[in-house]
């Protein structure tokens, strides 16, 4: 299925802007910056913008309802723009993956991620493509909530930026080829 909608997960507000949990926001911000796009408020639920790819308008969104309620604006946008969950790519942080790395999944559980859990609950499906952005590992004895809401140190910022520099190319490849073909191509390119 073609990807028509890219959503990045995070928490709104300055307090959270540079936290690990906002990696999804940073990813879609990077795409918007590279395309010179500006964000618009959509029904006080999300910030949205569009970019043209292969003659199609690709919707990009940041839910503004805080991470744990991400599913509400996502479902509202899916319905309004007549997009299926399988046509959506969700970008979000994952502390079980080392910073600087990323993984893809076409379906599956939330893995304990509250934003993804909210999307699963509200859409009623686990079948939507995802890109998990590594921001770990979780330090020994650290509380998960404290770690994900902590800020990136300088070394981690460099590793995060190395992923962000590739994010638009990755998203474009997924949009161009479809999710399954794209992740094979991305894996090949990564191993060169």
Keywords, separated by commas or semicolons:
7-stranded mixed sheet, 7 strands, 23% strand, 192 residues, 38% helix, Rossmann fold, alpha/beta, 6 helices, globular
What does this structure look like?
By secondary structure, this protein is an alpha/beta fold. It has a single domain, classed as 3-Layer(aba) Sandwich (Rossmann fold), CATH 3.40.50.1470. It contains six helices and seven strands; from the N terminus they run βαβββαββαβααα. The chain has a seven-stranded mixed β-sheet, sandwiched between helices. The longest helix is centred in the last third of the chain and has 24 residues, at 154-177.
| Number of DSSP helical runs | 6
Question: Which word captures the global form?
Answer: globular
Q: What is the makeup of the main sheet?
A: 7 strands, mixed
Rg, Å, rounded? 15 Å
Looking across the biggest beta sheet, what order are the strands in? 2-3-4-1-5-7-6
The count of β-strands is 7
What's the pLDDT, averaged over the residues?
95
Oligomer: single chain
Number of domains: 1
In CATH, the homologous superfamily goes by the name: Peptidyl-tRNA hydrolase
- Gross CATH architecture: 3-Layer(aba) Sandwich
Order of helices and strands: EHEEEHEEHEHHH
The chain-level structural class is alpha/beta
Helical content band: 25-40%
What is the CATH class?
Answer: Alpha Beta
Give the end-to-end Cα distance, rounded to a whole number of Å: 27 Å
Low-confidence stretches: none
What is CATH's topology name?
Rossmann fold
β-strand percent reads 15-25%
